[in-house]
Amino acid sequence: MLFNSLDFAIFLPVVFLLYWFATQKNLKLQNFLIAAASYFFYGWWDWRFLSLILFSTLVDYSIGVALRRNENIRIRKTLLWISILVNLGFLGFFKYYNFFLDNFLEAFAFFGKEINANSLNIILPVGISFYTFQTLSYTIDVYRKQLEPTKDFIAFAAFVSFFPQLVAGPIERATNLLPQFYEKRKFDYAKAVDGMRQILWGLFKKIVIADNCAEFANIIFNNSDNYSGSTLLLGALFFTFQIYGDFSGYSDIAIGTSRLFGFNLKRNFAFPYFSRDIAEFWRRWHMSLSTWFRDYLYIPLGGSRGGTLMKIRNTFIIFIVSGFWHGANWTFIVWGALNAIYFLPLLLLNKNRQNIGIVAQGKIFPRLTDLINIISTFLLTILAWIFFRAENIAHAFNYIADIFTYKLFNVPEVLPKTILITIIVFTMIEWIQREREHALELFKSDEFLIQPVRWGIYFAIIISIFSLGGSQQEFIYFQF
Question: SS in 3 state form for 366-406?
């Protein structure tokens, strides 16, 4: 079920009304409704995979109960590894089986040994990368004794399957989201209104920015041999805004929807294209995944505490694994490695945390140095996104090579002025609002925006969604 679909437009109000009017007085009933609605939401795509998420839930709930009862370190480690192997085993089979098989066969063929083996026609379950990491965070935190294991199976099932963020994040930690299912929730009008604003802005990002950019990015990338360098650069720019509008738009809708039900999800994007270096970019892009890998992989490996070789090793591991998490293709691995190369000089020179605050905070315009750094970081990001979008490694390198020719200075063959103007206006709005959680968040200091003005803004966005929206595209991160 897509957020930008009529199905969801009917589903959400129905669940909302049942939640606040039929089950408000009973916390367990509320949690049961959330779990049931979430399973319905997920099953709308393909009911056969409901058994997969239920099995993962049962495994990690049972392991949490067993960890509560055992203090023996060997038993606890065994239980932890069962959870890791079961969850990553499912993820590995559905997502990576054919990738490893095909590369295994190609490796033997390279040395002149032909092996006959057939790939499987495996359907990748939507959201498996997200809810797998979510349940793993629970087991690992319980093992580390950073979280008390739950006795409430319904609350745990609702936590794992929570429909706003089930299929594309944010990847919630059990330490943040699970305790919220234990607390009685009261309807908060201000929180709900802000949630609606965030949903509206997320829909704008998805329908107007991402879907329009996707049309032109697909045309250019799919026919890259036929275009000049300037058009190819424009295609990479379109994909850069497509993936941001698509993924951060989904996160905005997920966070806003959660607020309607009294839940607070972690922020997932913090205006990443205004970053002044790659380290800052990764603190602002897909924050739930970045921090997950930091806490459960990078730090256990030693982080940046060791010598230079350990720092280099750990940096490459974290970025390559992050790339591989996105998909079973060498393009994602190269994309991760390229970001590691971008990041390493900052880490080795101890400059990876020099840009912690918000750029030009309290000011209208950035300093010239900041502007140059933002543009430089943005161009490096565009270059990396080419590998992310390309069909294969050869396509990516050919695409980049064709950009850097004398035709880079030609007028692009594809030049949609309306979407380019929309992107510029969108970027200006996000720049103005960069100190806030999302672009439509209002503070008490915004009281000068009288109600007619606020509603005028909302209607302008709604009209732009219907008048400027591109053809419906599935969310990019559904494939991950």
Answer: CCHHHHHHHHHHHHHHHHHHHHHHCCCHHHHHHHHHHHCCH
**Quick one: 60 and 173 in the same domain?**
yes
CB 142 within 8 A of CB 149: yes
Q: What sign has the CA pseudo-torsion 80, 81, 84, 90?
A: negative
Among 268, 295, 319, smallest CA distance to 137 is for 295
Q: What residue numbers bound the domain in which 448 lies?
A: 190-276+355-479
Out of 119-133, 333-347, 434-448, 458-472, the most confident range is 333-347
> In the chain, what is the greatest distance between 2 CA atoms, to the nearest angstrom?
75
Distance in angstroms (rounded) separating the CA atoms of residues 384 and 374: 15
Distance CA 355, CA 345 (A): 15
Distances (CA, A) of 294 to 171, 331, 340: 13, 22, 14
In this structure, the answer to whether residues 182 and 211 fall within a common structural domain is: no
Q: Where are the alpha helices (DSSP H) in 18-127?
A: 27-46, 50-69, 73-110
* Tally of structural domains, the chain: 2
Give the end of a domain, one of 131, 157, 186: 186
Give the model confidence (pLDDT) of 278-310 as tens digits: 999 999 999 999 999 999 999 998 888 878 899
395 is catalytic: no
**Helix, strand or coil, per DSSP, at residue 262:** coil
Q: CA angle, corner 39, sides to 327 and 65, nearest 5? A: 85
- Which of 286, 326, 395, 438 does the annotation list as catalytic? 326
